[in-house]
C-alpha cells in the first residue's frame, strides 16, 4: 500500500511481550502490512515469544509456532534487525535481559519500543537515542490520531482473516479489548461499519 501521501510511518521494535498473545500479534502485523508503522524485531525477540507460547500452549506443535515466525519474517518488509549485538553490553536498563531490545531499536533506527513492560525501558535511558517506549494501547490511539484509515484497514483485514470461527464486529472488538487495547477499541467504534 502506498503511504507516500501520508506521514512517514514510525519505525517500531516489537518487544516479545506484545508478540505473545496471538490476537495482539496479528493486529500488530496488520498495522505493519498496511503501512501504519514499520515493524522490526530480532531473532532473539522471536526466540523469547516463541518459547513463551510453547510454554503457555504445550499442545501447540513447535512447527506451527515456527510457521508463524516464518510468515512474520516473509510478509513484513525488512523486519529483522541484525548486527545490533555489539551494542548490548554498552547499555544499562533495569532488567539487563532487555538490553537486546534497546540495542535492536538503536541499530534499527527505531522511534519506538512497543512493550507492556514500560518500567523496563525508562525514558531517561531511551531519550538520548531518540527512542521512547509505548504500550500497545497508547500506540493504537496515537496511530488512530495520525493514520486512522490505515488502522481501520488493519482491523478490517484482521477481522476478515478470522475464519475459525468468523467474528462479527462486536466479537472482534471485544477480543481486541481483551488484549489491553481498550482505548484503541473505543477509538475504532466510530468506524465499526468499515471493520
How far apart are the termini? 18 Å
Structural class, please?
A: alpha/beta
Going by CATH, the architecture would be: 3-Layer(aba) Sandwich
Helix content range: 40-55%
- Kindly state the mean pLDDT as a whole number? 95
* CATH class division: Alpha Beta
Overall structural domain count: 1
Low-pLDDT sequence parts: none
Number of helices: 10
Fold and architecture overview:
This protein is of the alpha/beta class. It has a single domain, classed as Rossmann fold (3-Layer(aba) Sandwich), CATH 3.40.50. Helices cover 53% and strands 8% of the residues. The chain has helices at 16-19, 22-33, 43-56, 62-75, 85-88, 99-107, 123-126, 136-161, 169-177, 182-188; strands spanning 10-14, 37-40, 112-114, 132-134. β3 (112-114), α7 (123-126) and β4 form a beta-alpha-beta unit. The longest helix is centred in the last third of the chain and has 26 residues, at 136-161.
Amino acid at each position: 500500500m502506498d503511504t507516500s501521501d501520508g506521514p512517514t510511518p514510525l519505525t517500531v521494535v516489537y518487544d516479545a511481550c506484545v508478540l505473545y498473545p496471538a490476537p495482539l500479534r496479528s493486529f500488530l502485523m496488520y498495522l505493519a502490512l498496511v503501512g501504519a508503522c514499520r515493524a522490526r524485531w530480532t531473532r532473539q525477540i522471536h526466540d523469547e515469544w516463541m518459547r513463551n507460547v510453547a510454554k503457555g500452549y504445550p499442545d501447540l506443535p513447535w512447527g506451527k509456532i515456527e510457521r508463524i515466525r516464518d510468515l512474520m519474517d516473509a510478509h513484513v518488509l525488512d523486519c529483522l534487525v541484525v548486527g545490533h549485538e555489539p551494542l548490548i553490553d554498552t547499555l544499562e536498563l533495569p532488567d539487563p535481559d532487555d538490553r537486546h531490545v534497546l540495542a535492536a531499536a538503536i541499530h534499527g533506527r527505531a522511534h519506538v519500543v512497543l512493550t507492556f513492560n514500560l518500567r523496563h525501558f525508562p525514558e531517561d535511558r531511551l531519550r538520548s537515542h531518540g527512542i521512547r517506549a509505548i504500550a500497545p494501547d497508547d500506540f493504537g490511539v496515537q496511530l488512530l490520531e495520525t493514520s486512522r484509515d490505515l488502522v481501520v484497514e488493519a482491523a478490517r483485514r484482521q477481522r476478515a482473516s478470522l475464519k475459525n470461527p468468523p467474528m462479527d464486529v462486536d466479537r472482534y472488538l471485544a477480543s481486541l479489548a481483551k488484549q489491553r487495547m481498550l482505548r484503541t477499541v473505543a477509538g475504532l467504534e466510530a468506524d465499526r461499519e468499515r471493520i
